[in-house]
Structures are given as C-alpha cells and as structure tokens.
Automatic annotation (TrEMBL):
It comes from Capra hircus (Goat). Its EC number is 2.7.1.107. The chain crosses the membrane at residues 20-39. This is Diacylglycerol kinase. Keywords: ATP-binding, Cytoplasm, Kinase, Lipid metabolism, Membrane, Metal-binding, Nucleotide-binding, Repeat, Transferase, Transmembrane, Transmembrane helix, Zinc, Zinc-finger. Pathway: Lipid metabolism; glycerolipid metabolism; Glycerolipid metabolism. Residues 212-353 form the DAGKc domain. It catalyses: 1-octadecanoyl-2-(9Z,12Z)-octadecadienoyl-sn-glycerol + ATP = 1-octadecanoyl-2-(9Z,12Z-octadecadienoyl)-sn-glycero-3-phosphate + ADP + H(+); 1,2-di-(5Z,8Z,11Z,14Z)-eicosatetraenoyl-sn-glycerol + ATP = 1,2-di-(5Z,8Z,11Z,14Z)-eicosatetraenoyl-sn-glycero-3-phosphate + ADP + H(+); 1-eicosanoyl-2-(5Z,8Z,11Z,14Z)-eicosatetraenoyl-sn-glycerol + ATP = 1-eicosanoyl-2-(5Z,8Z,11Z,14Z)-eicosatetraenoyl-sn-glycero-3-phosphate + ADP + H(+); 1-hexadecanoyl-2-(5Z,8Z,11Z,14Z-eicosatetraenoyl)-sn-glycerol + ATP = 1-hexadecanoyl-2-(5Z,8Z,11Z,14Z-eicosatetraenoyl)-sn-glycero-3-phosphate + ADP + H(+). Pfam families: C1_1, DAGK_acc, DAGK_cat.
Length: 564
C-alpha cells in the first residue's frame, strides 16, 4: 500500500476548465458589449432630446437621408443624423450641439425694432442645396459637386455658387421668391406686434405694402391621416413658408390655429387642409365657430390636399382622389395660387330617437358629403370598429380599400340590411315617397361617392340634372345591396334615383340599422332623421386636373346652357 503511487490528475480536467472559461467569455462578452452600447445609445438619445427641446431649430432624427448629404459643420459625407425641418440644416450627430449654437433658424418675427415690412435680408445656408437648382448669378446648376458647397436662402429658396457669392448678395433684400404672395413675412408679424402694443388694428394699411396679390396661406395638416404622410409634409411646408403658418391639427386644434386669420386683412387668407374628408369637416366646423364669434370677415377660403382613404370631397373640388407624393410640395402651392373660389353647401342632420320618455337632446351632425343608411354604412361601421382596435394596421390606402371590399363581399352573402323599404319612410320636401325593395338609401351633397364614383349622373343615355354642391339641393338615390354598390362603382349599373329635394326626412320605424354621415358611422335604433340646409363654406376649386367624368360633366353643363 505504501509503495503505490497516487494517481495523477487527469489532463482533461484542465482542458474542461479552459473550455468552460472560454464559453463564459464568448457568452458574457457579447452581452456586456450589447448592454454597454445600449447604455451609450440611451445617453446619446437623452442628450439629443435635451438639445432638441432647448433649440430654436425644428430638429428631426433620420436613419437615412434621401439624397447625398454633407454635415454643415464638419463638411463630411453623412448617411444619418439630424435635420431641421424649418431651415433645412443637416448635421452629423456629433456636430449637433455646434450647429445648434452656430447657425440661427428661420425667425417667425424679426428681433430688430424696425417697423418696415420690406426690410428683410437673405438668410443663406451653405450646402445640401436642392437637386436641379440653378445659380441666380451665372444660371449654371448648383450642388453638383460631391462636397459641401453653394448657398441657399431659406426664404426665397434661391441658390448661388460659392464663387458667385458676393457681399452685395449677402446684404441684398430678400423678395421671398416664387411664393411671396403666400408667405407671412417676419417683419409683418413684428409690425403687428408693435401695432397691438399701441392698440391699433389698421392691418389693411400694413398689408398694402405687400401688394394686392398677397393671399397668405395657412397649412393645417393631420399627421395621422391616411398613409401617415402628414409629418413629412409639415416639414416641407415649413421650409417653403414661414413656420408660424404651419400647424399639426393633432397638436393644435383648428379653432386655435385659425386665430392667425384675425391678424390678417379681411378676406385675404387661404387655408390648405392636408388630410381626409374628416379633417376637412373638422376645419369647416372651426370656421363655423369663427362666424358665431363674429369673425366672419376673417373666414378664409379652403383648399384640400387629400391624404385620407375616400377623399370624395377633395375629388369633387378638383384636388384628386389621394396624394402620395407624386408631385412636389412646391407644385401643390402653385395649384393653391391658381385655384378659384366657390361655395359648398353644408347641411344639418338631426337624429331624434323615438319613445315617449325620451329626454335626450336630438343628435346633430354637419354634413358636407353624404348621409346614408344601409350596406355602405354597414361597411364603414365594421371598418371603423376594427380600426379603433388596431389603428397601426390601417395606415395604407390600398389596405383600407381591401378591408372595405372584404366587408362588402361578406354583406353580399348575409344581407343584413334587406327589406329596408319596410323599415323606413322617406319624405322629400314634405311629400312621402314610395320605395321599391331597397337595402340602402344615400343622400348626396357632392358629385362623388364611394371613393371616386359619380353616383347621381351614373351611366347610359338617360339624362338627369347634374349634381351640384352649391345649389341648395340634395340628390337621393337607393341601392339594392352591396353587390349593386360594387356594380355602380365599376360602371356596370346605375343607382335607383329617388329625386332631389331641399329637405329630407327619414323615419326608421323599427330594428337597429347602420347609418353614417361623411364616413362617421354608428348603429341607430328607431328614430327620425331630418336633413336641412345649414350654411355655406368658402372653398377653393382647382381645375388643372380633371378626370374623364369631370370632362364629360363639364361638356354636359355647356350643352345644357346652349339649349337654354
């Protein structure tokens, strides 16, 4: 026993220890690096947010610039960083603090005490000029070198080469360029501030220095409408106009934003609403509130940039069925300048519930487009219910229309609104109308319905009075079901035309039926619906782009005038 040697520790034990150690390192080291990077990223984000909060610039983050971009501080090529959506500065993340201190942003009011409206110098920013821009001195293309070069004025948008920049240009008075008739100059607001301190309100004399063609434009954009393009459009409009003219209605309600009109001359302002038909209705309701407050002289004319799903009102007014960035924002402003003023009828829809002990006040809605009961209201109700549950899934215009198609197909099989003629009574201008076996009734104020369909005129050789949105008349039609609605939209069928009237009264005698006003649906029990004329809205009609239906309607109107 004593002569026996102790067994040596196996060599594999040390090998196993090394393997465990390296395994731990290979697992923990990436975890540690990831944790350290996330902490540093959080610190940078907090630092960046602190700069954004205190800065006068409208800084925004971006992971990828849409064109070759160079930092305005270090002049290095950058793929991501921050940009100001008011003046257009673009910087690397590390140069953000320096840029914020070195470069001033567009000022909505002048700091000087000068009351002269026309004393506004250029505000030049170097580099990142728009593509295909040309020098105001030599007329050659700017920004075509792969480096930080050339200058752009943030007000008039003129560009000039580095070598063409002279001291005379630096001190030259800015004329605000192509959109001078839409821009509210900072010097004007400075003068207004002085006048209000002196308790003077003679804005007409102050505006006369800006010319008779001056029609300042206020932008009201809904950043949540349709395809969520509103946020980007807000920045593009701030670059071309005075940032004080641009509002996000999700942050500043229209009634507050429109108070800017009270600082402008009578009947001079225009408003561009960027959103769907619901956003337009919201703005028009705010204008009605201004009338109640005695500000009728300041009521602006309203143009529409359609960002919603249906956009029937914007289509009726010549602004198209939907905007997806196919034309630049500068062209949108040109279209607004070329648009003509028209009137739009607005209607009061009063819904009174039935019952002996009903003490509730009647529900009141304002209608701009149409009222309906039946299958199209049912589709809108189902769509609205699902969008409320998951709004992020309904950010695509094409997807939204696909959902409508799904619910329309479903209703073709179920027919939830059948035998409507037995459930309702319809009166036009006090006279009762006998109805055939319908599933839906639609009351129209405008020419388009259902995302671009001319419902009243229809198709074929039958002649009907053309639908107008300013004649104080409503067009009432009936549909036989969801499949009939689909046939109408692809021009394979006509609706059942019931008639035209100044007032409409609909009595729902029994059961629960879907109803909608301008795309806002609800389920309604027995009630009486009364539609009467409420007021007119001042709108802007753009005739630059017409569909085939518009051209045929215009020719029909000319033929009617000739026969008369």
């Amino acid at each position: 026993m004593e002569g026996q040697e102790r067994p040596a520790p196996p060599a594999s034990l040390f090998a196993d220890g090394h393997l465990v150690l390296w395994t731990l390192c290979s697992v923990l080291l990436p975890v540690f690096i990831t944790f350290w990077c996330s902490v540093q990223r959080s610190r940078r984000q907090l630092h960046r947010r602190d700069i954004f909060r205190k800065s006068k610039h409208g800084w925004r983050d971006t992971d990828l610039f849409s064109q070759p971009t160079y930092c305005c501080v270090c002049a290095q090529h950058i793929l991501q960083g921050a940009f100001c959506d008011c003046c257009g500065l673009r910087v690397d993340e590390g140069c953000l603090k320096k840029a914020d201190k070195r470069f001033p942003c567009k000022e909505i009011m002048l700091k000087s005490d000068s009351k002269a409206v026309d004393a506004m110098p250029h505000h030049w920013i170097r580099g990142n000029v728009p593509l295909c821009s040309y020098c105001v001195v030599c007329k050659q293309q700017c920004g075509n070198q792969p480096k930080l070069c050339d200058y752009r004025c943030v007000w008039c948008q003129k560009t000039v080469h580095d070598e063409c920049m002279k001291n005379s240009l630096r001190s030259e008075k800015c004329d605000f360029g192509e959109f001078k008739n839409l821009i509210i100059p900072p010097s004007y607001l400075t003068s207004i501030n002085h006048m209000r301190k002196d308790k003077k309100t003679d804005y007409e004399m102050l505006a006369s220095k800006l010319g008779k063609q001056w029609t300042p434009l206020i932008i009201l954009a809904n950043s949540r409408s349709g395809t969520n393009m509103g946020e980007g459009l807000l920045g593009e409009f701030r670059i071309l106009l005075n940032p004080v003219q641009v509002f996000d209605v999700t942050k500043t309600p229209p009634i507050k934003a429109l108070q800017l009109c009270a600082l402008l001359p009578y009947d001079s302002a225009r408003v561009l609403v960027c959103g769907g038909d619901g956003t337009v209705g919201w703005v028009l309701d705010a204008l009605d509130e201004m009338k109640i407050k005695g500000q009728e002289k300041y009521i602006p004319q309203v143009a529409v940039l359609p960002l919603g799903t249906g956009n029937d009102l914007s289509n009726t007014l010549g602004w198209g069925t939907g905007y997806a960035g196919e034309i630049p924002v500068a062209q949108v402003l040109r279209n607004v300048m070329d648009a003509d003023g028209i009137k739009l009828d607005r209607w009061k829809v009063q819904v009174t519930n039935k019952g002996y002990y009903n003490l509730r006040k009647p529900k009141e809605f304002t209608m701009n487009n149409y009222f309906s009961i039946g299958p199209d209201a049912l589709m809108a109700l189902n769509f609205h219910a699902h969008r409320e549950k998951a709004p992020s899934l309904f950010s695509s215009r094409i997807l939204n229309k696909a959902v409508y198609l799904f619910y329309g197909t479903k209703d073709c099989l179920v027919q939830e609104c059948k035998d409507l003629n037995k459930k309702v009574e319809l009166e036009l201008d006090g006279e009762r109308v006998e109805l055939p076996n319908l599933e839906g009734i639609i009351v129209l104020n405008i020419g388009y319905w259902g995302g671009g369909c001319r419902l009243w005129e229809g198709m074929g050789d039958e002649t009907y009075p053309l639908a107008r949105h300013d004649d104080g008349l409503l067009e009432i039609v009936g549909v036989y079901g969801s499949f009939h609605c689909a046939q109408i939209q692809v021009k394979l069928a006509n609706p059942f035309r019931i008639g035209q009237a100044h007032t409409v009264r609909l009595i729902l005698k029994c059961s629960m039926m879907p109803m909608q006003v301008d795309g806002e649906p609800w389920a309604q029990g027995p009630c009486t619906v009364t539609i009467t004329h409420k007021t007119h809205a001042l709108m802007l009609y753009f005739s630059g782009e017409q569909t085939d239906d518009d051209v045929s309607s215009a020719s029909d109107q000319e033929d009617t005038k000739e026969t008369e």
